[in-house]
Amino acid sequence: MAAFTPLTYHQRAHNDLLSSFIGTASARPRRFSAARIRMSLQESAPSLAVVGVTGAVGQEFLSVLSDRDFPYRSIKMLASKRSAGKHVMFQGQDYVVQELTHDSFQGVDIALFSAGGSISKEFGPIAVRKGSIVVDNSSAFRMDENVPLVIPEVNPEEMAGIKVGKGKGALIANPNCSTIICLMAATPLHRHAKVVRMVVSTYQAASGAGAAAMEELVLQTREVLEGKPPTCNIFKQQYAFNLFSHNAPVLSNGYNEEEMKLVKETRKIWNNKDVKVTATCIRVPVMRAHAESVNLQFEEPLDEETAREILKNAPGVVVIDDRAANRFPTPLEVSNKDDVAVGRIRRDVSQDGDTGLDIFVCGDQIRKGAALNAVQIAELLL
Amino acid sequence: MAAFTPLTYHQRAHNDLLSSFIGTASARPRRFSAARIRMSLQESAPSLAVVGVTGAVGQEFLSVLSDRDFPYRSIKMLASKRSAGKHVMFQGQDYVVQELTHDSFQGVDIALFSAGGSISKEFGPIAVRKGSIVVDNSSAFRMDENVPLVIPEVNPEEMAGIKVGKGKGALIANPNCSTIICLMAATPLHRHAKVVRMVVSTYQAASGAGAAAMEELVLQTREVLEGKPPTCNIFKQQYAFNLFSHNAPVLSNGYNEEEMKLVKETRKIWNNKDVKVTATCIRVPVMRAHAESVNLQFEEPLDEETAREILKNAPGVVVIDDRAANRFPTPLEVSNKDDVAVGRIRRDVSQDGDTGLDIFVCGDQIRKGAALNAVQIAELLL
Fold it and tell me: Contacts for A27-35 with beta carbons within 8 Å, 24 or more apart?
C-alpha cells in the first residue's frame, strides 16, 4: 500500500535514513551473484525458517544469511497473521510471508526465532517436537538450565552434540545483545587473568526496542527540531536529545531486567557462579549500535599492553584505540558491522597494581547483538 | 545584524530550540519586577564583572544572578575584542559589552570568569592584584594548592576568610561540571559511610563544549535527517545519533583530561588523597545536562533506604526514584534546573553486604555544573 502512496521529500529522507540505520538491502550493497545463489541452494543443505521475518532482527537474519552464504535447501518466511501476505526479497527471490502456526515447522531443520518471548514460549517447543533446532533470540529460554546460552566465539562447547541431520530437535538461546557485546571483549581477558568483578554502564541504541522505536526516535527528533511536541508511542518520554534509564521493568532489587540479564547471563556463559557483575543500562538517542563502559577487576595481573594484544588477536573483535588522534570506537562506526570494537584500554587508576582495566566497547545491536550471533550458532549446527 | 535579517521558519525553529536549550531570557520567564531591581541595585552591594559574558556560561551567569536576586552596585560585561560592542540585556537594562583589558578590574569586587583557561591564566592574577575576588570557571587554577576548589554544598569551609570588603583579592576555582554533578550526590553518602572507591561513567551533553557545539549538534541532526553529510567544525566526527569518547586530550596513562579531573578534583574537594576514583567520559547527543552512572564502594555499611533518606535531605539534590513507574532522572528534566537529580538508588549486587551502591545522577551542566555553582560561591563572599 505504502509503495503506491507518493512520498513527500521528508518521508523519503526519513525512510532512506531508517533503511540506512536498519541496514536493509536497499541501503547496503548485496552481491547477489548467480554463483552465490547456486552455492547456497543445495539439496543436501538444511531447510530454514525465519520466525518474525518482518521485524528489524528478522530482516537482519536475511541479510546475514546472505552475507555469509549460509547454505539452505528451502527457507520459510514466518510472521504474525498481521504480516502474513507481505513480500520479502531474499537472494534475488520474492517470498510471501506465511502466518506462523503450529504446523509451520514440518520438515524445518533450523528455525531462527526473533518474534518476542511469548511467541518463542508457545512455538519454540512445538518446533522442537517437529525435530527443528530452534535458535531463539528472545529471553524466553536463556536461563533454562537445559538450554545452551551461546556466543560462538565464547562457549561453542555448550552446544556440542546438537547437529542438523540427527532428526532431533533442540533449543539454543541467543544471549541478550548487551551481554554478547560486553563478553566479546571481556572473555578473552577473562581467559587470561580471570575476571572477578565487572562494573558495566551501557549506552543503548533505539534498535533494541525494535524498528518502531528507531522510527519514533527519527520522528521525535524531527518534531523537536521543528519546535513541536514529540510523539511518544513506544517510549513514554522524550527520547530525542535526551536519554533515560532502560525501559525494561524494574525488579524488587532495584535493577531492571536488562541489567540483571548482564549479571545472570555472564555467569551462565562463563559457567562461573562466582563472577560479580553490576550494570546500569541507559537508553541513548543512537540508532542501532550499543556502547558499554566496562570496568574490570582481575584475579591475576594483566597489564594494558598484554590486554591490547589479547584483544587484537580475539576473533570477532577489532581494537580502535588511537590515543594521539583521540579515535576510539563509536556506535556509528560499528553499525552494520560484524566485529565488536574495543578501545580506551587502560590500567584502572583506582585499583592497585595491574589487576584492573577500563575498556569501552561498541557493537551493532541488531547484527552481533542478535542476528549475526544466531546465524553463527546455526553454522555450528551444520 | 542577524536581527535585521528575516529568518526562515527553520532558522527560527533552530534558534528557538537553541535558546530553549541554552536557557536565555527569551526561553525562560524572568520576573523583572521593579522591586527586584531595587533590591539588587544597592549602594552597599559589591561591584561585579562577568568575563566571557557572551558565551553559554556567561549568559547563564546573568540568568542566575537575576534569578537569585544577587545584590550588586554595578556590573561590567566583559568579553574578547571580537564580542566588544555587542549588547546584552540584564534585569531590564541594556549593557554594551566591553573588551577585556588589564584595566578592566579597577574597582571590581567580584569577577566571574568563564572565558577559557588561557584568559583566566592571564587576567585572573591581574584582577586579584586589583583587589578583585575571582571566581574562575576554567581549569586554570583548580589544582593549585593555594586556590580553594569549592562546591558550596560540599566544602564551603575551604574559602573561609575570603570576603568582599576586606580589600584583598583572591582566586577561587569552580570545579569541573562532571565533578560538581557527581559529588553533589556522592558527598552526602561519603559523609555517612566514607567512599573508598568510585567508578564513574558519564553521559555528557554538547553544552560542555560551548554554545557552538550545541548549534553544531542541531545542525548535524538536521543534516542527517535530510540525508546530507553532517558538518563537523567543533567535533571531528558525526555527533548526531552517535556518541564518542570525550574530546579532551588523552594523557599518557590512557585517561583523557576530563576523566582525570574527576579523579583529582574529587580528592582535593574531599580533602582525601586516598579515595580511589576511575572514570570514563563519553559525549552523548544531548543538549545541556550531563548524566553519570556512579558505582560506589563504602568503608562502612550503608543500606539503600538510608542512602535514599540521606539524599532526600541533601541540599541541592532531588531524588527521582520511582521504580514502579520506571521514572528516574533524565538530562531533559534537569535542564535549566538548579538541583541535581539522583535515582536508580540500589544496593550493588556485585559487592558483599551493604557496602556498595549504584546511583544515576543528572545535572544541568551550564547551571549547577558551572554558572550556579560560581554564583553560589560569590554569595558566600558577601
Answer: A28/A63, A28/A336, A30/A63, A30/A66, A32/A66, A32/A91, A32/A92
Cα distances (Å, whole numbers) of residue B79 to B19, B59, B65, B92, B120: 20, 11, 18, 20, 12
Q: What is the separation, in whole angstroms, between the first and last Cα of chain A?
A: 40
A13 vs B226, B256, B344: nearest CB: B226
pLDDT of residue B220: 98
Question: Is the four-CA dihedral A251, A256, A257, A263 of positive or negative sign?
Answer: negative
Cα-Cα-Cα-Cα dihedral sign, residues A139, A142, A148, A150: positive
d(CA B280, CA B262): 10
Strands (E), B170-249: 170-173, 195-204, 244-245
Which of B239, B276, B278 best tests the A interface by mutation, with the highest count of A CBs <10 A?
B278
CA A335/CA A345 separation, integer angstroms: 21
Whether the CB-CB separation of A105 and A50 falls below 8 Å is answered with no
Residue in chain B closest to A332 (alpha carbons) equals: B242
DSSP annotation of A28? S
A91 contacts: CB under 8 Å, gap ≥ 6: A32, A36, A37, A40, A66
At B70 the three-state DSSP class reads coil
Q: Is the pLDDT of residue A361 over 80?
A: yes
Give A196-228 pLDDT, tens digit per residue.
999 999 999 999 999 999 999 999 999 999 999
Q: Give the pLDDT of residue A290.
A: 98
More confidently predicted of B20 and A180: A180
From its phi and psi, is residue A263 left (phi > 0), alpha (psi between -120 and 50) or beta? alpha
d(CA A269, CA A261): 11
Contact A302, A192 (CB under 8 A): yes
B256 pLDDT above the threshold of 50: yes
Of A17, A331, A350, the CB nearest to B277: A350
User: What average pLDDT does the segment B109-120 reach?
Assistant: 97
Report which secondary-structure segment, H or E, holds B117: helix B117-129
A285–B247 CB contact, under 8 Å: no
CB atoms within 10 A of CB B74: 13
DSSP letter, residue B86: -
Number of neighbouring beta carbons within 10 Å of residue B15: 18
Is A87 a known active-site residue? Answer: no
Per CB-CB distance under 8 Å, the chain B contacts of A287 are 241
Q: Which residues on chain A are in Cβ contact (under 8 Å) with B347?
A: 253-254
- First-to-final CA distance of chain B: 39
Who's near B14: CB < 8 A, 6+ residues apart? A225, B218, B219, B222
Q: How far is CA B362 from CA A45, B123, B181, B340, B357, in A?
A: 54, 33, 7, 6, 17
Contact between residue A222 and residue A14 where contact means Cβ atoms under 8 Å apart: yes
> What single string gives the DSSP state of each residue in A269-337?
HTT-TT-EEEEEEEE-S-SSEEEEEEEEEESS---HHHHHHHHHTSTTEEE--BTTTTB---HHHHTT-
Bridge partners of B171, per DSSP, are B134
How far is B247 from B118, CA to CA, in rounded Å? 18
ipTM score assigned to the predicted complex:
0.91
Res A10 pLDDT > 60: no
Report the half-sphere exposure of B33 (CA within 13 A, side-chain side): 6
The position carrying cell 529568518 is: B7
- Please give the residue of chain B at the shortest CA–CA distance from A349: B278
pLDDT tens digits, one per residue of B201-250 = 999 999 999 999 999 999 999 999 999 999 999 999 999 999 999 999 99
Average pLDDT over residues B106-126: 97
Give ∠ CA B216-B219-B225 in degrees, rounded to 5: 135
Least confident span in A29-43, A156-170, B59-73: A29-43
For residue A167, name the pLDDT band (cuts at 50, 70, 90). Answer: confident
